[in-house]
Structure formats: C-alpha cells, structure tokens
C-alpha cells in the first residue's frame, strides 16, 4: 500500500515536471501581468512531410485545470485568426493595451482549459511551405486537417486526451465546428478517440439562404432601411442572391442597384456586426468579411485590431509565443494568402447539427442580438425547424435568462439536447461586447444546466 502511494506521488511529480519543462510552455509574454495559470503555444505539423503546421495557443484553467473540461475555440472568416480574434479580443485571459497586456476579468479559462487554433493553413501563424496549397482549401480539407491536429496535439498533452471535450466557435465556425464534430463521431465508431461532450456556436452560418436573407428584416426592424428598400431587398434581389452573384463575378444590374440603396441607407458609419456601436469600429470584427463582401470597402482599421496587430507583429512577442512568419511579411487578423473555396458558404450545415443531436451530442446555438450580419432571427428559425424535424419537445419554454439582476437574453431548450439563446446587447463577437453575460452562458453550457431565470437570480 505504501509503495503504491509512493508511485502515485512520484507520478504526480513527474507530470508536474513534464509540464514545467514542456517545449511549448510560455515563460512570459511581453507586458503580461502575473498569472496563476500556465500558457502554451507553438506548432503541430499536420502532414508527414512536415510542410504544413497549425499554430495553437493553449491556456489552462485558472484553478484546478485537471478537473476542468477542454474547450477548442475556432473563429470564422473563413480565414481569420482564433488567436488574434478569440484569444486576444474575445474570451481569452489577456488583451493587448499598448505595450502591455490587461487581464480579461471574464476570461473563459475561469471555467475551462481553452485551446485556440489558427485554422486552416495560411491563417495567423499557421503555414505551409508549399504555397500552392493555400488555393485548394475547403470545408472538407479543413475538417480533416483539424482532426489530425487534435490527434497530434494530444500527443503533446496526453493528460488531456480523455478530458471532456467541447468545441466552440462563431461565424463561419458554423461550418468548421459541426463538420469537425461529425468527423470525430466517425472516428469514435471505430475506436474511442475523442471524449466529445458538446458544441456551441455563436452567430453561426448554418444555412446560407435563411441566415443571409434574415438580414433584410433585421435592417428594416431596426430602422436602418426604409419600407421601399426592404421590399426591394426581399423581392428584386435578396442578400443570398447578391452574395451568390458576387462570388461568381456576375453581379446583375438589379442586385447592384438594390445593394447600393441598402448601403446608402444603412450608412458606412454603422457597424453591421453591432448596430448599436458608435463609429469607432473595431475592425477585428471583420471575421465575417467574406460572408458580407460589400463591407470590405467600409473597414476602418482602428481600435481593437490595431492593438492586436501591433502586439502580435512584435518580434519579442513572436519569440515568446514560439511563433514565426513563414511566407508572409506580417501577421494579419484575417489571411491575405488563403484562397478558400467560397462556394462552400452555400452548403448547409444545419443538417449536420441535426445528425449530432441524434447522436446525443448537446448543441447550443447562441446569438448576439445586435448583429445584422448573421441575425438572431435566422438562427432561431433554423433551430425551431430542426427541433420540429427531429420531434424534440420543448423542455425549457422561450423565456428570459439573467446575468445578475439584469436580463442577459432569451433562451429555449428542446429535448434537453438542443438549445437556442440570445445575448442581450451583444455583437457578432458576443464575448467581446458582452463578456460577463457570455461567461454566464458558457458556464451553463459546460455544466449542462438551464440558464439562470428570475427565480434563482440574486
């Protein structure tokens, strides 16, 4: 008995020593405050010839990481950095502020071990030495590369291989996450590899037509366009038609007129990712620039993106992160070298979400309610329709939920496995604009409990 205890103690010491000497351990990021948790970052090669490598940033939970779940976070675009957007502006523990990093009081690593991945190749610090591969990337390839990354990442961090795993993300991650989860289930049917416990998607692209065409009603209901323009935007040329034509280099005169009128009335001084924001637009919110192509000319490179770009382009920061620039001269929030197959936007993923629910994987779809790029109305419609299709009964009727003494948003749950929620006052990047409310939502999701209602608020 005494010998068994001794081996257990020695084993714990060995694991601690291994983590302390881990080659990807971050000693200290320039300008960071004192932290009580460990950070890691570096590369995982995703092909045997070592031509392609994905970059990750991993922060352990603030307290007792061995008892907390592992959460993979993916940003959208396609082609925008999960490290730059997710970690350093949304739900990570640190945010650039000039020469220093400030603590994010509502970091998601309060509740989980957070893994941020720059995917696909060509995004952020991720790279391929064969640049021709940047022009052949699509959803299927991205899912395969991501699952290969995870398999090899677990070799670096074997202590997390059997930890409960959740996949989260936003925007075009509405394609990335369900397809990755579907592939995990396929792997698990041959051999149990991934301890997948749920997925959460924020303002996600799930159905091209429904999501994009809900924009017209959102604009109109928020007073951004007139009645006549709303009628034009729904009858002459809806938004999905315009985007289809745009990516085929064949914008019709009628769609050109309709979009010109919409853009004139909505104004370039209103942030479409948060219609309540003033004109200082954090252009890090451009991760949906491909979903909203007409917005490109309206980007204003100020505020948050400037802080992140300046920080991550510092040589001392890149050295501390074990990162390097390969084939590019500077780090960018969204990739300028990736040529993603944009026709993949038109492939619905809501059916994949349905297949995950059938497998018993809990799914949360949430919406920042001030986002007009992928509005809550489209997401709610899709979730309602999916619940009906699957024959799921409402287990939590549509109601408000609370963060403290304030309404945090609205929620509805179906069959205790499919959930929809809004985050009141939040933008497309909800953890950026409403961090405290987003953390409440995240905690409830991980614990599998209903969002706080009026009877339990304090």
Topology:
Blueprint: H1 2-20, E1 39-45, E2 52-59, E3 70-74, H2 82-90, E4 94-97, E5 100-103, E6 113-118, E7 127-128, H3 139-156, E8 165-170, H4 173-190, E9 196-202, H5 208-221, H6 227-235, H7 239-246, H8 253-266, H9 304-312, H10 315-320, H11 350-358, E10 363-368, H12 376-390, E11 394-403, E12 406-414, E13 418-423, H13 430-433, H14 435-447
Parallel strand pairs: 3-6, 3-8, 8-9, 9-10, 10-13
Antiparallel strand pairs: 1-2, 2-6, 2-7, 4-5, 11-12, 12-13
Helix pairs in contact: 2-9, 3-4, 4-11, 5-6, 5-12, 6-8, 11-12
Give structural notes:
Probable carboxypeptidase. One of its GO terms (cellular component) is vacuole. InterPro entries: AB_hydrolase_fold, Peptidase_S10, Ser_caboxypep_his_AS, Ser_caboxypep_ser_AS. Keywords: Carboxypeptidase, Disulfide bond, Glycoprotein, Hydrolase, Protease, Secreted, Signal. It comes from Olea europaea subsp. europaea. With 458 residues, this protein is of the alpha/beta class. The protein has 2 domains: 294 residues, Alpha/Beta hydrolase fold, catalytic domain (Rossmann fold), CATH 3.40.50; 93 residues, no CATH class. Helices cover 36% and strands 17% of the residues. The strands form 2 sheets. Strands 1, 2, 3, 6, 7, 8, 9, 10, 11, 12 and 13 form an 11-stranded mixed beta sheet that branches. Strands 4-5 form a two-stranded antiparallel sheet. α4 links the parallel β8 and β9. It is globular.
């Amino acid at each position: 008995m005494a010998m068994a205890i001794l081996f257990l103690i020695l084993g714990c010491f060995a694991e601690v020593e291994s983590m302390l000497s881990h080659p990807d351990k971050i000693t200290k990021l320039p300008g960071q405050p004192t932290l009580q948790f460990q950070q890691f970052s570096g590369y995982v090669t995703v092909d045997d010839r070592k031509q392609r490598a994905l970059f990750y940033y991993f922060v352990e939970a603030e307290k007792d990481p061995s008892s907390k779940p592992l959460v993979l976070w993916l940003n959208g675009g396609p082609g925008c950095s999960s490290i730059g957007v997710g970690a350093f502006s949304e739900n990570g523990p640190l945010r650039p502020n000039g020469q220093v990093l400030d603590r994010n009081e509502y970091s998601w690593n309060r509740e989980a071990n957070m893994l941020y991945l720059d995917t696909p190749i060509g995004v952020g610090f991720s790279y391929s030495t064969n640049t021709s591969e940047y022009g052949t990337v699509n959803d299927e390839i991205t899912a395969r590369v991501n699952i290969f990354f995870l398999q090899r990442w677990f070799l670096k961090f074997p202590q997390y291989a059997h930890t409960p795993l959740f996949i989260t993300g936003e925007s075009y991650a509405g394609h990335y996450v369900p397809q990755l989860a579907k592939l995990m289930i396929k792997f698990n049917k041959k051999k149990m590899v991934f301890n997948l416990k749920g997925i959460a998607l924020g303002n996600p692209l799930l159905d091209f037509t429904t999501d994009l065409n809900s924009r017209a009603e959102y604009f109109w209901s928020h007073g951004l366009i007139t009645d006549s323009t709303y009628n034009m935007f729904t009858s002459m040329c809806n938004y999905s038609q315009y985007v289809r034509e745009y990516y085929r280099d064949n914008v019709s005169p009628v769609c050109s007129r309709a979009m010109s009128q919409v853009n004139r009335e909505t104004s370039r001084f209103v942030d479409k990712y948060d219609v309540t924001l003033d004109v200082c637009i954090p252009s890090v919110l451009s991760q949906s620039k491909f979903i909203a192509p007409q917005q490109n000319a309206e980007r204003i490179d100020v505020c948050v993106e400037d802080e992140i770009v300046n920080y991550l382009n510092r040589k001392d920061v890149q050295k501390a992160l074990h990162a390097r620039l390969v084939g590019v001269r500077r780090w960018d929030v969204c990739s300028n070298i990736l040529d993603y197959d944009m026709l993949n936007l038109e492939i619905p993923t809501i059916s994949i979400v349905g297949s995950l629910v059938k497998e018993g994987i809990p799914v949360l779809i949430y919406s920042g309610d001030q986002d007009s790029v992928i509005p809550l109305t489209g997401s709610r419609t899709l979730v309602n329709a999916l619940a009906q299709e699957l024959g799921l009964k409402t287990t939590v009727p549509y109601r408000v939920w609370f963060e403290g003494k304030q309404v945090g948003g609205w929620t509805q749950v179906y069959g205790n496995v499919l959930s929809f929620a809004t985050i009141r006052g939040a933008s497309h990047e909800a953890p950026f604009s409403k961090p405290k409310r987003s953390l409440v939502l995240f905690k409830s999701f991980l614990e599998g409990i209903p969002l706080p209602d009026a009877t339990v608020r304090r």
